[in-house]
Design brief:
Elements lengths: L2 E2 L5 E3 H5 L5 E9 L1 E4 L6 E4 L3 E9 L4 E5 L11 E3 L13 E6 L7 E10 L9 E9 L4 E7 L8 E10 L2 E11 L8 H4 L4
Parallel strand pairs: 1-12
Antiparallel strand pairs: 2-14, 3-9, 3-11, 4-5, 6-7, 6-10, 8-9, 10-13, 11-12, 13-14
Length: about 190
């Protein structure tokens, strides 16, 4: 059963998945903005380009690598972005970041996942926006975070995955921000490390 994450909540990924979790997927989904046509007739859709990113940090809280629409794979190959969706069209996840936790280098202490509105719409304007963590082995949802109800901001530091006591844990950060890419959020990310 999936956990509907609340800001600040911490969970054990292994416990929520019902066993050792070695591969996860961070899924991001949303729909294009639908608005009424001229004089209230018909409708049109406005494209929305949300972007999922993952930043890898070492023990000294320094970024060591990034996975985002301009770099779809980490240098060590443990994290892969499946590609940039620029419209929100289609069902299910529009973007995914796959993480093989067993291959993340031991020098990496934490992974921070962010979502940015590259086209600049704020999350209150974007329909059905969510992030979720899936167990890659069986595609079952472990946790979900609803973005559309979050308000008038263009970015969010979604969550941190971190090593603790020999297992991966997750902290739902849910901090709102602004900016078109994860790089704009770096000053806000640092206090969460």
């Amino acid at each position: 059963m999936s956990v509907n994450l609340q800001k600040g909540q911490k969970i054990s990924l292994d416990k929520e998945a019902g066993g050792a979790l070695t591969r996860i997927i961070m899924g991001l989904g949303w729909d294009a903005i639908k608005s009424k046509g001229l004089f209230g007739f018909g409708s049109k859709s406005e494209s929305v380009d949300l972007d999922a990113s993952c930043v890898m940090f070492d023990e000294s809280n320094k970024p060591v690598d990034y996975v985002w629409f301009r770099q779809l794979k980490s240098k060590d190959g443990s994290i892969v972005h499946t590609g940039d969706n620029r419209t929100g069209a289609g069902d299910g996840d529009d973007e995914q970041i796959e993480v093989d936790l067993s291959r993340v280098p031991a020098s990496v202490k934490s992974l921070i996942f962010t979502v940015n509105s590259f086209t600049g719409q704020n999350f209150s304007q974007v329909e059905n926006a969510y992030c979720r963590i899936l167990n890659a082995a069986n595609q079952k949802e472990v946790a979900r975070y609803d973005l559309s109800v979050q308000g008038a901001h263009t970015a969010q530091i979604m969550a941190k995955l971190y090593r603790h006591g020999g297992e991966w844990k997750m902290h739902a950060i849910g901090e709102n921000g602004s900016g078109r890419t994860f790089d704009d959020l770096m000053p806000q990310i640092t206090p969460h490390l």
